[in-house]
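Standup notes
- DV: blocked on the single-chain target, sequence here:
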Amino acid sequence: MEIGVTEVVFRLIPLLLVLGTAVMGLIVCLNNITAPGANLRFVEHIMTMDTTNMDSGTQWREIRSPVLHRAAFLAILVCEVAVTVLGLVGSYFLATNLTAPADAWDAAKLFGYLTFIMALVVWFLIIQVVGAEWYVSWQSEKWNAIRDSTRINLITIAGIILLRIS
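- DV (later): unblocked, structure below
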């Protein structure tokens, strides 16, 4: 069965969100590989909790080991690479099935969903849950990524919903 122009246009929206997530991941990876200092400092400040209002209830969570800071930074980078690769693969499958029947389009969504899952791992689980809540970086005026990660998470959630209903 042939699909209509409106359906193709509606399918373009989640495709662009998957592709945009992949391109954002690529830029983030590029920045972290070519200029790692800025985001490594971010990880160091969050894990050492040196710009938060530490009290005895949270201070025990601080990690001052440069080795563990670099390991955390590397783990985040690996997850960002996964966002990028999954997003590029997902974009390819969605683009090549843009005018396909519904069953083929639905099968093509898998890597898009995986892209959004990994985006949530990075910007929700790691940045907001671990960084903002566990290391209380929400208290820091400078080393706080809640606003940016919230924006990314809202776009990711919109992408999941739009991919699901397309």
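- Follow-up: The mean pLDDT is 96.
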